[in-house]
Amino acid sequence: MQEDNDRRDDSTPRNDSTTRTSRNARISAAVTRHRRRHPRGARALAVGAVALVGLGLAGAATIALDRDDAPEPAAVALDARARAEAADRADRSARESTAPTSPTAVPTATSASPTPTVAPTKKAAATPKVTVKPKAVAKKTTSPKPKPKPSWVIPMAGAEITSCYGQRGGALHAGIDFALPAGTPIHAAAAGTVVKAGDVGDGYGTSVFIDHGNGYLTHYAHQSSLKVSEGDRVGVGQVIGYEGSTGDSTGPHLHFEVHQGQMWNQIDPAPFLRARGIDVAC
């Protein structure tokens, strides 16, 4: 058929405008077929069609000027189709690369990273404190101070009082009588000096006088025996003799007197002793 067309074209004079119209129709048909195949690349096809029309017009002018018997521009049409397909592929790939993410594709939520567990640091073993005890200072053992001896004591402790100071039988009983079994020790009521010791025949039997140097003297009568002599210095509570019944006596006892200022100036021994911390039941 192509050969018939060629022969017909050689025998029949050609009209240039008719030829261009026929070519344009063929190009339009090709564009229409391409659009039907690729509806999504309409924009690219429109651009390609404009390019093809320009190429076709230019090719037609060239063919009309150079050669009147040039073959139909099938190759041009094929080239335009390939370019349109390439443009469509490029346009599609660009759309796919910039297409938004499908709404059905939900990004997987990344679970929050768990807080790292910090293992507790083992504390270094505490160095035990070494308590240095101070050396025990040996306490000086101080023996308790002995209680100071009283200045005055009772001459015969624990004895029964059988007679107090005062009138008795029409006469003055000038002292206090202490009774215990014979031989009971007799103690000096206070410190002093022995000024008389023995029996002088005055009814007091064996007796002792002690001067205490403070204006007072004490008298211890009816003793069975003596432990001191005249001129001896005695201390408070010192044993000076033993209970007896010598002189004018009806039984073993101690007759005790207090003389104030001078010998034979007797006073009541009970208040005197109480004033010095010694209580007697008289």
UniProtKB/TrEMBL annotation:
One of this protein's Pfam families, by short name? Peptidase_M23
Question: What organism, scientifically named, is this protein from?
Answer: Micromonospora matsumotoense
TM ranges are 44-65
Q: In what ranges is there compositional bias, type Polar residues?
A: 14-25
UniProt-listed InterPro entries: Cell_wall_metabolism_enzyme, Dup_hybrid_motif, M23ase_b-sheet_dom
- Residue ranges, compositional bias (Low complexity): 96-144
Q: Name one GO molecular function term.
A: metalloendopeptidase activity
Protein name per the record: Murein DD-endopeptidase MepM and murein hydrolase activator NlpD, contain LysM domain
The UniProt regions of compositional bias labelled Basic and acidic residues, in chain numbering, are 1-13, 81-95
Residue ranges annotated for the M23ase beta-sheet core domain, each copy included = 172-262
Q: Where is this region: Disordered?
A: 1-40, 81-153
Keywords (alphabetical) are: Hydrolase, Membrane, Transmembrane, Transmembrane helix
